[in-house]
Amino acid sequence: MIFNPEYECMEPGARKKLQLAGLKNLVETLYERVPFYRKKLDDMGVKSEVLHSLNDIEKLPFTTKDDLRDLYPHGLLACPKDRIVEVHMSSGTTGKPVVDEYTQKDIEIWRESMARTLAGGGCTRDDIVQNCYGYGLFTGGAGAHYGAMTIGAEVLPMSSGNTARQLMVMQDFGTTMLTCTPSYALYLAEEAQDSGIDLRKLPVCKGCFGAEPWSENMRKEIEDRYGMKAYDIYGLTEIIGPGVSFECEAQNGLHINEDLFYPEIIDPESGKSLPRGEKGELVITTLTKEGTPLLRYRTRDISCFMDETCGCGRTTVRMHRLFGRTDDMLIIRGVNVFPSQIEQALFAIEGTEPAYLIVISRDESHLDELELHVEVKKDFFSDETKNLEKLRYRIETEIKNSLQIGIKVKLVEPKSIERSAGKAKRVIDKRKM
Ligand code: DLL
What is the pTM (predicted TM-score) of this model? Predict the structure, then answer.
């Protein structure tokens, strides 16, 4: 279902006009109301007058995560404080949190973008949505809640955790749609299996998953265990939360809500725009927000635009599912590796459980060493050592073939790697400790 055909299926030329008007308006507002931006624009000697076409956005300054941290908590506010009605924040595990302050209109924008997102995953007013994204300062819980309510679906506001209760509610209330992180979806599936619950027999038949990287093979695993369609949804606190982009039934790239969020792909080194189709850093400008609008925000997420039109009827540009982040790229003995590449290779191998941990350290000769801890299926673990040894060798070889790096694999018992109800922690880099 397309939630808002007027905007989602808009003729691209008309949308461009709308985006350009939004961009000019944004630059004027930021110049007037946010001293940080006034200084940046003055330093570069630019004003909204330089914007003749959307390509002129390249003349405008970027905003970075460091800027947001420096200006914590209210330095980017672009409207009177008393117009703010809600606040969300990132967890801030690597420094000061980043803040999004919403006016009533911003909440409307969020409701709209999340209604489009969940509708992309097939949500209608007949659905019962079990929302296990965390409620609180994290944007996942509120975002999915607003979206489902806007569509008119019934929401079960579960938040994350308490797995036994999640499974009870899923059965007793006839959940049809699940929203949570992909790793939590798999954790729920494992617990269901241990409790003798066959998820494939339950009404739950679709889910919108995001907030952390996941691979195509992880999608297959979720779809298989639940007998459902699993859709990727993307967003970040700074921009609005979830609702920036989402997959439709084609499950082939994420449609960006580009009348609301203007996307660019740039070379992270030079900052220059990249030609369509090339992989680079996603940069987003909010076109309609009031509370904390952002100009050319560098997300650090790596993606590319997909050019062909989508069969679903939406005309919005699609971004490829994330390849990784500029800051989660691991450099192992000089080779660039993203954790998602390791996951993709691993999930294709029969006999492993969908839980893994990447541990990086330095050996005695100060060379990088990557050890991959992989859980093995119960029956496999009770098998002969010869079979375990074979499996270990197979994982090492397949990863070596696909990523061109030598790694060590440690097979561990089922359930020995810590599970998370929110974003999974997949990497321990001891080199940084
Ligand atoms: O994770 C917002 C969200 C909530 C998105 C629920 C989707 C669903 P933050 O906590 O600010 O916001 O984290 C944002 O998470 O820059 C990406 O690196 C990563 N991320 C989000 N969605 C995806 C995804 C929320 N679908 C950061 N695939 C982003 C891969 C994702 N990574």
Answer: 0.93
Query: Which atom of ligand 1 is nearest to 208's Cα?
Result: 8
Pocket lined around ligand 1, Cβ cut-off 6 Å: 90, 133, 139-140, 143, 210-213, 232-237, 241-242, 299, 301, 322, 325
Residue of the CA atom closest to atom 29 of ligand 1: 236
Helices 163-172 and 182-194: angle between axes, nearest 10 degrees: 80
Q: Which residues of the chain have pLDDT under 70?
A: 92-94, 383, 433
Name the residue of 301, 323, 329, 420 to mutate for ligand 1: max ligand atoms within 8 A of Cβ. 301
Would you give the distance in Å from CA 312 to the centre of its chain?
A: 22
Contact predicate 214/183, CB 8 Å = yes
Map out the domains of the chain as residue ranges: 1-327, 330-432
Q: CATH number of 1-327: 3.40.1390.30, 3.40.30.10, 3.40.50.300, 3.40.50.12780?
A: 3.40.50.12780
pLDDT tens digits along 84-121:
999 999 976 667 899 999 999 999 999 999 999 999 99
Give residue 93's pLDDT: 63
Give me the pLDDT at residue 94, please: 63
From 113, 219, 247, 322, mutation site for ligand 1 pocket: most ligand atoms within 8 A of C-beta? 322
Report the alpha-carbon distance of residue 394 to residue 376 in Å, rounded.
13
196-203: long-range pairs with CB below 8 Å, 24+: 197/167, 197/171, 199/225, 199/226, 199/227, 200/225, 200/226, 200/227, 202/170, 202/171, 202/174, 202/175, 203/128, 203/174, 203/175, 203/176
Give the C-alpha separation, 115 to 129, whole Å: 12
**Which has the closest alpha carbon to 177: 244, 230, 217?**
230
Q: Please tell me the distance between residue 212's alpha carbon and the centre of ligand 1 in angstroms.
A: 5
Per-residue confidence (pLDDT) for residue 431, from 0 to 100: 85
Q: What amino acid is encoded at 83 in this protein? A: R
Give the pLDDT of residue 92.
66
CATH topology of domain 330-432: GMP Synthetase; Chain A, domain 3 (3.30.300)
